[in-house]
C-alpha cells in the first residue's frame, strides 16, 4: 500500500486530532475492512493486524463488557474465541475493560483499561499493538481516537457491528466464527515469519483482586438480584 494512502496511522497524532470521519474515512461494506483508513479485502487487513500483534511491543487484548459478561450464549462463545486468539499471540496480555465509569482519583493501569483515559494504560504498559473486542461502539470510538492522539499504539478493532474509522485495522461483523478465522490467519502469518510459539493462555493479571465465586449468591448483587433469578413460570433458555 502506498504511504500516501495511509490516512489513519499510529500516533502520537497530537492534541485533539481530527476524527477519521472528518478525514474522509468511511465505514466498509459487509465483507470488507479498513486498513489505515482505506477500504481493503478482509484477509489483507487481517494479515496486517497479525503482523502488528506479532512484531510490535507488548501486544495486548482489551475485552469489553460484551465478551466479559456471559449475558447470552453467543457472548460466551465469543469469549472462548478471544481466549483462543490470545493463546496464539506470543507474550500476549489481556487487560479487561469491565466498567465504563470513570475511576477517580486514579486507576490501576495494570488491572484494567479505563475508556476515559485509555492512553494512560497503554503508555504505562508500553503497549504498541492492541485489539479492542466486545467494547460498545461509542466507547470504542472515544478510546481509539485518544490512543491515536497520544500514543504510538497500533490499534485493531474487532467490531460486532460496522467497524471503527479511528483504528489502524477495523474488521466488522466479528463474532466467534470470524474471530477464529482471524486466529487462523494469524497462525499462518506467524509460521511464514518463522516465529516459534507454543500456544498458551496469557498469565493471570496479578493486579486483579482474588475472588471466590463459590461464595457468591444472587443476593450479593443487591437491586440487580431480580435480573439474575428467574421469575415464577419463567423459562430460562440460555444459561451457563
What does this protein look like?
The chain is an alpha/beta fold and 240 residues long. It has one domain: Rossmann fold (3-Layer(aba) Sandwich), CATH 3.40.50. It has 7 helices and 7 strands; from the N terminus they run ββαβααβαβαββαα. Strands 2-1-7-6-5-3-4 form a 7-stranded mixed beta sheet, sandwiched between helices. β5, α5 and β6 form a beta-alpha-beta unit. It is globular and about 55 Å long. The model has no long low-confidence stretch (mean pLDDT 88).
What is this entry, summarized?
The chain is of the alpha/beta class.
Structural class: alpha/beta
Order of helices and strands: EEHEHHEHEHEEHH
User: What's the rounded overall pLDDT mean?
Assistant: 88
| CATH architectural group | 3-Layer(aba) Sandwich
Report low-confidence residues grouped into runs of 5 or more: none
Shape: globular
**CATH topology-level name:** Rossmann fold
The Cα radius of gyration reads 18 Å
- N-to-C terminal Cα separation, in Å? 45 Å
Strand content: 5-15%
Major sheet strand order: 2-1-7-6-5-3-4
Query: What's the number of helices?
Result: 7
CATH top level assignment: Alpha Beta
Number of strands: 7
Task: Indicate the percent of residues in helices.
Answer: 25-40%
Count of domains: 1
Sheet having the most strands: 7 strands, mixed
Amino acid at each position: 500500500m502506498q504511504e500516501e494512502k495511509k490516512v489513519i496511522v499510529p500516533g502520537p497524532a497530537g492534541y485533539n486530532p481530527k476524527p477519521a470521519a472528518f478525514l474522509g474515512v468511511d465505514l466498509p461494506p459487509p465483507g470488507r475492512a479498513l486498513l489505515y483508513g482505506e477500504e481493503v479485502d478482509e484477509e489483507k487487513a487481517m494479515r496486517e493486524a497479525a503482523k502488528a500483534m506479532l512484531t510490535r511491543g507488548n501486544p495486548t487484548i482489551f475485552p469489553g463488557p460484551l465478551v466479559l459478561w456471559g449475558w447470552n450464549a453467543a457472548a460466551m462463545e465469543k469469549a472462548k474465541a478471544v481466549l483462543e486468539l490470545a493463546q496464539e499471540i506470543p507474550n500476549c496480555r489481556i487487560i479487561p475493560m469491565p466498567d465504563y465509569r470513570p475511576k477517580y482519583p486514579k486507576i490501576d493501569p495494570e488491572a484494567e483499561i479505563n475508556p476515559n483515559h485509555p492512553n494512560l494504560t497503554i503508555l504505562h504498559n508500553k503497549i504498541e499493538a492492541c485489539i479492542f473486542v466486545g467494547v460498545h461502539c461509542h466507547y470504542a470510538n472515544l478510546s481509539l481516537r485518544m490512543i491515536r492522539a497520544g500514543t504510538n499504539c497500533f490499534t485493531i478493532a474487532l467490531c460486532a457491528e460496522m467497524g471503527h474509522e479511528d483504528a489502524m485495522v477495523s474488521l466488522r461483523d466479528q463474532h466467534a466464527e470470524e474471530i477464529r478465522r482471524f486466529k487462523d490467519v494469524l497462525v499462518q502469518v506467524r509460521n511464514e515469519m518463522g516465529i516459534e510459539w507454543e500456544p498458551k493462555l496469557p498469565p493471570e493479571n496479578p493486579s486483579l483482586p482474588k475472588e471466590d465465586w463459590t461464595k457468591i449468591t444472587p443476593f450479593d448483587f443487591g437491586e440487580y438480584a431480580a435480573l439474575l433469578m428467574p421469575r415464577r413460570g419463567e423459562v430460562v433458555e440460555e444459561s451457563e
